[in-house]
């Protein structure tokens, strides 16, 4: 319990500095290994070597900023959005003219994203719906607020959580259309509407928190204790969810208007909340993510029972295969399981961050993530558990440093 009285930061400052040095050393040696290999094939004249290095560097830079001619044509015709393998937000990194010989394997896949978890089958299937019991007045308030907002959201998207009885599930063919007509089942289009609205909102909190902490760090000329990166990672992860689902179908103008309005209200409300009480803001996100896990669990269950026939055996979009490193024959169901595992991570991280001293504590997940089973089946660390986790990560890094 003595740890509770201490900020988490002093526990790990030394380790962070050392691990950064190791990371820098590894990065530097990787870059220079590639450089040496090219230069070593040239005559051993430094000026020639330098010139050839700078030439190839310039070629690479020019190439990497240019789009392939066919992509320029496609862009001009504006047919890129939502096309399979073409990304869903305009040109993709693969659309660049990049000479294969010069491209590092590190840049060939997924280099446009930050780090994100890659899951095993067990980790994808173990995710559970868990609810963190509120412990303070503010917890109770935000939990009720989330439930209230969810009711409005359910109404807007036609969502009802009605279990389908076993006798109906045993019927062949399944009476999907009748169940949909009775409002007991969501259609594929309504699932997509719900998911797109949910994801367009879910990408806001990480960016707001990251921005405010970034500005605070600049303003006070102080380090942030590793929070910013985790929050930006979450924002990007949510945006990748959105882009993935947008490859299935393009939202109508009405949905786009809803997204616009919701973002305008939610961004400002969350910004003000984070300014006043970041602890409350993280708790709010924790409860929101509990609902996201619930929604995706329902969706997965419906697909597995054959209640969303349009999504059975649909191949995973290319963007998802790249992002989650899924097998080439992965299905949309695998993608939704990966999304749910991400939501469980956000649930875990935000509830854990909410329990910390917002101004003094180090982000425990800056040194490493809790394992995916823990993230998928529990609602977060208490402050004492975070302190213990930091100590374990610190020890792990020190042992690694000794081995190098
Ligand atoms: Fe999401
Ligand atoms: Fe999320």
Summarize the structure.
This protein is mainly alpha-helical and 404 residues long. The protein has helices spanning 9-40, 46-65, 69-77, 121-125, 137-157, 166-170, 176-181, 188-202, 204-220, 227-246, 253-276, 278-304, 318-324, 332-354, 372-377, 383-403. It has two domains: 62-112, no CATH class; 121-403, Ferritin.
What would you note in describing this structure?
Belongs to the alternative oxidase family. GO terms for molecular function: alternative oxidase activity; metal ion binding. Catalyzes cyanide-resistant oxygen consumption. May increase respiration when the cytochrome respiratory pathway is restricted, or in response to low temperatures. It is a single chain. With 404 residues, this protein is mainly α. It has two domains: 51 residues, no CATH class; 283 residues, Up-down Bundle (Ferritin). Helix 1 packs parallel to helix 16. The protein binds fe (ii) ion (2 copies). The site of one fe (ii) ion has 6 residues, from helix 12 and helix 14.
**How many domains, as an integer?**
2
> Which sequence of SSEs, written as H and E, runs from N to C?
HHHHHHHHHHHHHHHH
Secondary-structure-based class equals mainly alpha
Please count the helical segments.
16
Distance between the termini: 34 Å
Bound molecules: fe (ii) ion
Largest sheet data: none
Strand content: under 5%
CATH class assignment of the largest domain: Mainly Alpha
The chain-level mean pLDDT equals 81
CATH topology of the largest domain: Ferritin
Instruction: Tell me the name of the CATH homologous superfamily of the largest domain.
Output: Alternative oxidase
Low-confidence stretches: 1-7, 9-53, 79-88, 99-110
Radius of gyration: 24 Å
Helix share of residues?
A: 55-70%
Proper CATH architecture of the largest domain: Up-down Bundle
Number of E-type strands:
0
Q: Which of globular, elongated, flat, extended, rod-shaped describes the shape?
A: globular
InterPro entries: AOX, AOX_sf
Enzyme class: oxidoreductase
Keywords: Electron transport, Iron, Membrane, Metal-binding, Mitochondrion, Mitochondrion inner membrane, Oxidoreductase, Respiratory chain, Transit peptide, Transmembrane, Transmembrane helix, Transport
GO cellular component, one term: mitochondrial inner membrane
